[in-house]
Amino acid sequence: MNRQPHTIYDSGDGSGRSGAPFVRLLGLSKAYQEGDRQRVVLQNASAEFHRGEFVALLGRSGSGKSTLLNVVSGIDRPDGGQVWIGGQELTGMSERDRTLFRRRHIGFVFQFFNLIPTLTVMENVTLPVELNGASPKAARQQAEPLLHAVGLLERAGAYPDKLSGGEQQRIAIARALVHDPQLVLADEPTGNLDEDTGESVLALLDRLTRQAGKNLLMVTHSPESATWSDRVYHLRDGKLELDPAAKPGFTTASARKGPAPVRLETAHFAAGGHGPQGDGEAGR
Question: How far is CA 282 from CA 38, 64, 111, 278, in A?
Fold first, then answer.
């Protein structure tokens, strides 16, 4: 039986602030058994994100940040609650349907890049779309605008071990966006970079996601990194608490000046993705 692609809701007003929220997390709960003790990671965690928002999630190591990203992406199922993305309830889907939804609509950026060392830069970026049926020529056409946008098209034939950490993360960002997802999940994307390189990576992420009308949910332990976002949530005792000092339209992100937004005219090829790895959190 041929499955129809999931339809993503778009309010169409261009503001990202009206209509139904693009992402809705409703009363999420998650616990893990550790020996004879149950460890509660998420407890009635709720939040709403509108189209085009850059949201930061702050929390200490072990607080469950990566667990939350896994639940949002549909890799892991919550014990209770619902996840809605673009009008689709992920928590109501089968595992196969969640995987297909993730491949079409969600991109991942990892702390440790996760590039395949035996593949070139171009091959790393095109691999997800080729695995899903795109021809090598079509995959390259998909990847080249992104490699140009991250400033590394001239390194397309290089291998990851010839790149700096910042360059590897820029390639990882291109790979995360190659299937034109509307939601990007970033798990400590600057955690393995020096301060200056981290700032440049955040600027690139902001330009290619929020400024291009996509949603970015970034997990970080760094308050400085969180200033790039429109809103900041803290994960405490399993619950999401909105930082009252971070209001949409009045944050550092709104005041930053940078290159004009990049809107890539790309086809919708399905790209595979694995979940956030986290930072060694127990229960993630």
Answer: 12, 8, 17, 10
Structure confidence at residue 272 (pLDDT): 36
- Helices marked H in 52-120 — which ranges? 65-73, 95-105
Radius of gyration of the chain (CA): 18
**Model confidence pTM above 0.85:** no
- Give the type of residue at 163: L
Q: Give me the architecture of the 51-75+107-255 domain, per CATH.
A: 3-Layer(aba) Sandwich (3.40)
Token pair of 13, please?
């007003």
Enter the tokens of residue 255. 């005041």
Question: pLDDT tens digit string along 145-165?
Answer: 999 989 999 999 999 999 999
Nearest CA to 209 among 79, 108, 60? 108
CA dist 63 and 66 (Å) reads 9
What is the C-alpha separation between 189 and 29, in angstroms, rounded?
A: 25
> Which amino acid, one-letter code, is at 282?
A
